[in-house]
Description:
Blueprint: E1 2-7, E2 11-17, E3 23-30, E4 42-43, H1 45-62, E5 70-75, E6 81-83, E7 93-94, H2 102-112, H3 128-138, H4 140-144, E8 148-150, H5 152-161, E9 165-167, H6 168-171, E10 177-178, E11 183-184, H7 186-191, E12 201-203, E13 208-211, H8 214-220, E14 226-228, E15 231-232, H9 233-240, E16 249-253, E17 257-263, E18 275-278, E19 285-291, H10 296-304, H11 310-320, E20 328-330, E21 348-350, H12 358-380, E22 389-393, H13 400-410, E23 413-417, H14 423-433, H15 442-445, E24 451-455, H16 459-489
Parallel strand pairs: 1-5, 5-15, 9-12, 16-22, 22-23
Antiparallel strand pairs: 1-2, 2-3, 4-7, 6-8, 10-11, 13-14, 16-17, 17-19, 18-19, 20-21, 23-24
Helix pairs in contact: 1-5, 2-3, 9-14, 11-12, 12-13, 13-16
Amino acid sequence: MYLGIDLGTSSVKVVLATEDGRPLYVASEPLTVSRPRPLWSEQDPDDWWKATRRALFALRSQTSLAALRAVGLTGQMHGAVLLDPSSSPVRPAILWNDGRAHAECFELDVRLGDGREQLGNRIMPGFTAPKLLWVRRHEPENFSRVDKVLLPKDYLRLRMTGDFATDVSDASGTMWLDVGQRVWSPAALEACHLTLGHMPRVYEGPQVTGRLSNALAQELGCGRVPVVAGAGDNAAGAIGMGITRPGQAILSLGTSGTYFLVTDRFASNPGRAVHAFCHALPEMWHLMSVTLSAAVCLDWFDRTSGEAGLPTLLEEARAAGRPLRGPLFLPYLAGERTPHDDPHATGTFFGLTHATGRAELTWAVLEGVTFALRDGFEALHEVAARPTDLTITGGGSRNPDWCQLIADALALNVHVREGGDVGPAAGAARLASLADPATSSIEANFPEPEKLRSFEPRALETERLSQRFAVFQQLYAQLRPLTLAADDENPQRGKHIR
């Protein structure tokens, strides 16, 4: 048996799995996010460790861990965990969805100059590097105490093994990694007033970084089993779904939407806000587009239209059928990442008439999110060949109408597979299995889970949606100057003015 630990933003999930990633036992513990100021998002690293211990002990209460062979780690990316010489947190961790470091992104862009090309990504506040510049500028005493910088999942590793280590996929999201060469960039670190001595050692995902401490192994009732490097959450989720070979692709349709394509070479398109990261397997990379508001748009529309509940909304839409000329919806409730990198973008309904009802608006939301995903999909495929098949995971994958809409809009065969709800943790467990000499090859260990449902694109719908998609793109382009003007003239936008 192999253990996968997934440190998310809202919970820690632990999965005990077989070598092919099939979950046997699952336990989780909730986490809370602190937002002490606008744009801030923080968590206490020690809370992560306490929640992880509770989840592990809950797992142990379900079954013996005596047969455990190895452990893999995954979790939220881009967080800044700052440790002093005694390995204690200097301050709360600054998370991936923290937006305070806008000014530092411009500063870092200037400092790096042409050297940013090797990093493969546009510099954004969510990445780790600008967060360190922010701490140096606004909390110099804290910055002076920094001895090591870790990513969130790697703080758990430190508590479990005593080792300072990370993996290439997670390190890709820092803006300190030379993604093509899969090593830290001294120039990028110097631009943030850091050195290689501040950083953990970088490993490939299946490599062993250490072993469980004696104390923890005794508490869990297992041996001092190896702990592998693991992966960032998106790469681990792909591993969990068997997305390991060039040309394979996966779409995670949750609060946000991420489209992930495996490649066997380093390629990038930072000008279109496409992410270029290392995959968790040696000599593999991946490209990723991010839509900031995906399934969360349905939650928003349910709240604003009377709280009928998502099942009711979706059933009404299904009963009414997909309208041929319904309204359009721009789903930019929190700005947008790929391809616009536009924090000022806002949501919009366009084309309302007296005939527009709640069912038509629900379809507009589904279609608008799908078009935003297509926008990112096309930006990514400016530098990589299109796949023919796509695996969908996340809460949105449970709606067959949405899956068919995505198949039609992207002109791809779409598949929903078993195990999507524990994908990252299962992926971490799969990576852990490679540390066991008794296991076989990657191909044998990382099969794609069984298909639950499949959806084929329909040519007529693909053509009709392409015409609507062109209007969708034009609508954003024409509204953007007005949105920027409104943002400049009304600093209270989004608040109630009395």
